[in-house]
Backbone:
């Protein structure tokens, strides 16, 4: 019995040793696999073009226009999702009014100057655009807002600059150029943007209208041609030291002149609008951000213009054709047959129950007098010294 136990024990130990040896052999075989170089692994990702932060939609506009024929920020805004273009005015779909701000701050410059600044600023200076349909209180704006965020120069950027020039040929040729530069050193940053444009425009508008007067159809025709020109200089400059920043915006428009020529049923007229001196706009803004977050600032704005308007062709009424002249104020309920009336005066054909049909050319109703001709035509005219004018005409006629 004892020998049988000894044989079984020896047999068990032999099997255990064999199993252990096999396991060791498998382990050694696994460890002896030759090392192999893996192929290059490339992980690709794309930056989201739009992301929402609370009520603000941050748009990566530089990424959207990267492959588009865009040179400046104003052109880039045309590719912003939801943006509409209403005769050159930027709007947002679903918003009646939109305010454009720069780097989170409103600008004191007129909208035309702001558009000119965005037009002369290269798209490379754009960081992103923030769209808000209901702006937070910190922006001090009501309604929809487009916040154009520009890149801030850093020490690693060094001196950056860009020079552009362009020419556009329409009815007349126009040309422009722009210079942009940015520089950072230690705690100082400098930014400069200058644009020069020489523009000459031309437009033509033909209108036909069929009016029913006293049971008869009357065709009114008008052919309006407009020619305008100007030389514009736009300057944007900023200097900042730590949290103190001084910004200057300026625009000087010279050689500004426009002429309108109208011919048709109501006669032929030519008016010239001319700036007697350059239009000057200058704005200086100072901003300081305290360590505890409070912002303190001040702004100074200066604007001046000297405009003239003169007719090149004056309608003449011979004294011999006048049958009567008297002081007369037009009625508030006068029927406008064909003409215009409002802030810039009244011009065209009107009709009243007492006076009948007359041609109006006046600015203020209180300065009017009525001239009646022997052939039945009537003119409602206006001038500052209406009583003296009526007396002078009467002394020549009667």
Residues:
């Amino acid at each position: 019995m004892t020998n049988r136990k000894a044989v079984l024990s020896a047999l068990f130990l032999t099997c255990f040793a064999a199993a252990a040896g096999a396991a060791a052999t498998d382990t050694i075989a696994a460890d002896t696999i030759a090392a192999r170089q893996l192929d290059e692994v490339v992980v690709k990702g794309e930056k989201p073009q739009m992301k929402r932060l609370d009520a603000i939609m941050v748009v990566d506009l530089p990424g959207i226009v990267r492959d588009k024929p865009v040179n400046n920020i104003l052109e880039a805004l045309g590719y912003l999702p939801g943006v509409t273009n209403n005769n050159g005015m930027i709007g947002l779909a679903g918003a009646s009014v939109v305010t454009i701000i720069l780097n989170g701050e409103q600008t004191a410059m007129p909208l035309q100057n702001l558009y000119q600044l965005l037009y002369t600023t290269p798209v490379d200076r754009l960081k992103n655009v923030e769209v808000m349909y209901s702006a937070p209180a910190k922006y001090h704006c009501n309604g929809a807002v487009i916040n154009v965020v520009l890149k801030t120069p850093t020490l690693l950027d060094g001196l950056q600059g860009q020079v552009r020039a362009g020419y556009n040929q329409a009815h007349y040729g126009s040309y422009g150029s722009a210079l942009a530069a940015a520089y950072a050193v230690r705690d100082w940053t400098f930014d400069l943007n200058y644009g020069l444009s020489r523009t000459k425009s031309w437009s033509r508008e033909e209108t036909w209208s069929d009016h029913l007067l006293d049971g008869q159809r009357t065709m009114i025709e008008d052919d309006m041609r407009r020619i305008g020109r100007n030389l514009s200089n736009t300057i944007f400059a900023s200097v900042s030291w730590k949290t103190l920043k001084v910004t200057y915006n300026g625009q000087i428009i010279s050689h500004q002149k426009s002429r309108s020529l109208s011919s048709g049923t109501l006669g032929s007229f030519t008016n010239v609008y001319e700036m007697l001196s350059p239009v000057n706009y200058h704005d200086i803004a100072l901003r300081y951000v305290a360590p505890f977050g409070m912002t303190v600032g001040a702004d100074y704005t200066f604007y001046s213009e000297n405009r003239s308007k003169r007719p090149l062709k004056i309608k003449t009424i011979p004294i011999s054709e006048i049958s009567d002249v008297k002081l007369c104020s037009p009625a508030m309920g006068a029927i406008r047959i064909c003409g215009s009336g409002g802030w810039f005066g009244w011009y065209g054909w009107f009709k009243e129950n007492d006076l009948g049909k007359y041609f109006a050319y006046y600015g203020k109703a209180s300065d009017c007098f009525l001239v009646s001709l022997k052939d039945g035509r009537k003119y409602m005219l206006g001038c500052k010294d209406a009583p003296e004018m009526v007396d002078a005409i009467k002394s020549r006629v009667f």
Q: What stands out?
A: The chain has three domains: 47-151, 153-314, 319-397. The longest strand covers residues 188-213.
